[in-house]
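Quick illustration for those who missed Monday's session on complexes.
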Amino acid sequence: MQLMNYINGNFCPQASGKWITNLNPATGEEICKVPVSNSKDVKEAINSAKKAYPNWSKNTPHERAMWLDKIANKLEEMFEEIAQLESMDTGKPISLSRSVDANRSVANFRFFSEMIKGMEIEEFEMKDATNYVIQKPIGVGALITPWNLPLYLLSWKVAPAIGMGNTVVCKPSELTPMTADLLMRAVDEIGLPAGVINLVHGNGIETGSSLVEDSDIDFVSFTGGTVTGSKVASSAASSFKKLSLELGGKNSSIVFADCDFEKTIAGVVRSGFLNQGQICLCGSRIFIEEEIYEDFKNSLINAVEEMKIGDPLDEETDLGALISKEHLKKIEYYSNLAIEEGGVLLTGGVPCLPKDFENGNWIAPIIVEGLSYESRCSKEEIFGPMVTLHKFKEESELIKMVNNTRYGLAGSIWTKDIERGRRLSESIETGMIWINTWLHRDLRVPFGGVKDSGVGREGGRWSLGFFSEAMNVCVKQE
Ligand code: NAD
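Prediction with nicotinamide-adenine-dinucleotide bound:
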């Protein structure tokens, strides 16, 4: 199977004739060939978006929201296909790709449709004048997404971007292109005007960078790694493109002795290992109050060892495969580094799996203890099924340890003392904190990080703000 770009309402081949082979992470088998688009393809896609912009941006917000509803309806019809493709492409368990990926992809379009229908013009009265603020579209946008939540994250950008009147060129991860292709089939089938959404497949070096550098791109919404984000930021800066960066994380789960023990074990396991620990919000450094440290550690190991690792398409599977051989090597590198840094591996390693999976990218979840909070393993983003355990006594010492990372995306605090949880939240250098839960999302709230975890916020009105330009009109009274 060979994928195609989607430009100006047509599926079309790439100019270069070059391909990337997309492999199934669980089996190592080929899924499809992915086009490597070059600057010529990228320019064509941008021109198509530019051509569509005047008419699309003239639609009323309500008319555009109706298109988002049509896309949501179409995706809902394709719900099971989304889940199957996402599981095959990423190696994640099918139960997860149904409950999270397919579900949220539909929900993102519905949510932004409702938000846009409910938008109101803000007014500021003066003694002798009235100001009113209108949110105008920006122009043509580049939407660049990673492999861990492919359609979930792409739809999170496409819906508010086109809903606010922009036209876009999408560049999904070359490792997981299948559901971006499905989205193009969906918009094609519902007859969305040509050029409103375009898609170029390809790698970062050739395709992604050509897109960001192009002078006809007015804004860039990027989700991915911090190192890539920094390159994207430098290339967008010279022409003052509006920029949103959602980058890496190294998040803490903080467990106090007064927590609800069983619920906290379940929550910390979920936060550490959901999607094989390949979610930017995963809590991969677990700080446990000294008096329950041993009990908590032992229960955690038991709970992790009970998780079922294997066939992503099996309904009972808890943990699937890692995205690629390179990524598996990265996790193995960090588990060796943990030992070099003085840590002890409490569980994890090579799982025993049927022959069908011998060429896949597998590792059983790893728990490490005994590392300093200053070790690389407890500060750097690993982005896989590996967590480090740390003991704490005092709150002041805890804050110092938790903030000792360049990242600042999310975190969770587990305690019955909600006042303490709220107080502590404010001392943590991060964009988001959950108390007694994790990844409990209300799509209206701001999403994003501080420090190396990103610039700007998406979600709810923050997305509508990013994907538009606020313009003030001041009318002097007679
Ligand atoms: P990545 O940075 O390697 O790639 C992300 C996307 O950028 C891909 O589409 C890639 O092709 C493209 N790209 C690569 N180089 C580029 C360049 N020079 N110019 C333009 N585009 C380029 O990230 P990844 O490995 O796909 O994803 C994992 C990372 O994403 C992790 O660090 C994770 O924390 C982060 N992430 C963050 C969030 C968030 O919301 N903060 C969400 C999901 C993932």
